[in-house]
Amino acid sequence: MVVIERKRIAERRIEEAVHTEIMRRIKAAEREHNVKVLFAIESGSRAWGFESPNSDYDVRFIYAHPKEWYLAVNLDDKRDVIEYPIVDDIDINGWDIKKALKLFFNSNPSFIEWLQSPIVYVSDECFTKQAQALMPVIASSEKAIYHYLHMAKGNYREYLKKEVIPLKKYFYVLRPLLAIMWLEKYDTPAPIEFEKLRELVAHNTDLDDAITLLLARKRVSLEKEFIPAEPAINAFIESELARHESYRAKYQARDVDVEVLNQLFRDVLDKYS
Which UniProt keywords apply (predicted)? Predict the structure, then answer.
């Protein structure tokens, strides 16, 4: 028990050190680019809940320039992303608020996932609360299903039709397929936490047990570990992909006035200018 507790303390200290470094880099980005970071979250496997010990920290953020930056004839020529190389397993980059809100209006699945991340580094109340409140009326189940189906099919074709499979790729097919099941059942944005999504198949004991074992192995394995194909999981994946082979949209498009996002944009610029 003493050894386990010491391990937990060591892991907690590492997490605290990484969090401190992430916040330092966010502040450095603000100074370097003269922006205000409004929202910063974890977006990858650590947010999904199936990270490996050596998984990257996938930090994504939304930022705003001073109002005057947007009042420019050459606005369309200005860069609307901030990107940094991966250093010490921290992958950090961001979108300008104007870019983010345009993508939000088009129900961009990545941005909608960011708004639901359970790991939040920065959250400006003016931006975050309004964006999250708008999510139910903007997010399109139809667009999300097409996005997740494309993700699942691509990873299945590329990695899972073999006798030996990259362990993490199982989750890159399972998570989008379960997200589709959520969208079909509730017609609301699917949560990004894998544990919430897998509740949809908890009644399938063989599949649920196989997923439990796979998760346990993923959390102690390195990113590039390979494993033999898992029959129960493969059967579920192949059944779901076959079910969606001729998918046709059946959800009504959201009727949203872009002015609500224009107002959010103005509110943020007024606050920080």
Answer: Transferase
